[in-house]
Amino acid sequence: MSVLVQKICVLYAIIYSLSLSAATVKASAASKVDLPAVGQSHYLGCWQDADEGKDKHRATVARDLTVNVVTCIPMCWNLRHLYALLKNGRECICTSSMNSLQPSYTTKCTMQCAGNNAYPCGSQDHVSAFHTGYIPEPDYTIMLESIPDALMGCYTDYNKKFCRDASSFETPRLSVGMCMSMCEEHLALYAGLQAGTKCCCNSSVDGTVLVEPDACFRTCGDGQPFKCGGGNFHLSIYRTGITVKRPIISSFEKLVWMNSHISTLAEEIAEDREKLNKNAMVAFWVLVSLVVTAVIVTAACCVCRYALPPNRSSGYQTAATT
Fold it and tell me: Which of 35, 42, 129, 227 has the least CB density, counted as fewest CB within 10 Å?
């Protein structure tokens, strides 16, 4: 019987090695980070959070019951971070490095977002990671010296004659230098900034009314002190470098760095869950087949052991003993 026990032990050692290999392959697959499309947010899966204060550039920007993927990614994108991490169902963490994270299984991120239960939001010690799609915008600081002299004042635009949709764009990264440069490229005489996020280009101020400077109280998100309009109808209007009135190039190209893009995240998460379910089924049937194989082999060994003639059996046992 000792030989039979040895065979069984060897068989189970093989099965155990196969299961370890499968786990290693799965862990390797989890650690692979696919590059997202340019400017596109991307779901990166579930990661174990072993930060413990190691990432000095990491910031928790929200911790409340409204946190979800749709709100967290734009916040991190606006702060110019590459990654948005959702943890514990209600924490939004921004970082530009994933060095403090370890790849893990999707099933470890067990909590849904408090603000939207359609999305995963990590767990107590795991994070659901997303690439924000951040792309650095062009540098417009070359315009800084000319900005104070270019300001014409604060104007109202109640009839929206200055700010036409075709000659405007919006981005939370707006700066006065960016707006002036873009309007100059489109051959406009004037650049108007509204609500800190909207840039309007025009070569006429007809229909606008000059008002008190305090009505344009907003600044842009670049940290500069220049005025970027007021409410919905107040514009800070600046002269561009264009001096001759010509037809404006009215259409603006949708540049990928202007705004965050999260339209495909729901599909990516659904695909990830579908793959997880398929992998779980495959793993289940592989395990079942291994167990069945082990049972069959064990039974065959037992049958062969007791089916041998008495003289061959005793000889076999003697040989095994020696």
Answer: 35
Contact by Cβ (8 Å): 49, 87: yes
pTM of the model: 0.58
Which secondary structure element, helix H or strand E, spans residue 127, and what is its range? strand 126-131
Report the alpha-carbon distance of residue 80 to residue 91 in Å, rounded.
Answer: 18
* CA pair distance 136, 258, nearest whole angstrom: 9
Residue 193 DSSP SS3: strand
**Cβ distance 94 to 1 under 8 Å?**
no
Number of CB atoms found within 10 A of residue 20's CB:
10
Give mean pLDDT, residues 181-195. Answer: 92
Q: What torsion do the CA atoms of 303, 309, 311, 313 make, to the nearest 10 degrees?
A: -10
Structure confidence by residue, pLDDT tens digits, 278-298: 555 665 566 767 777 766 766
DSSP 266: H
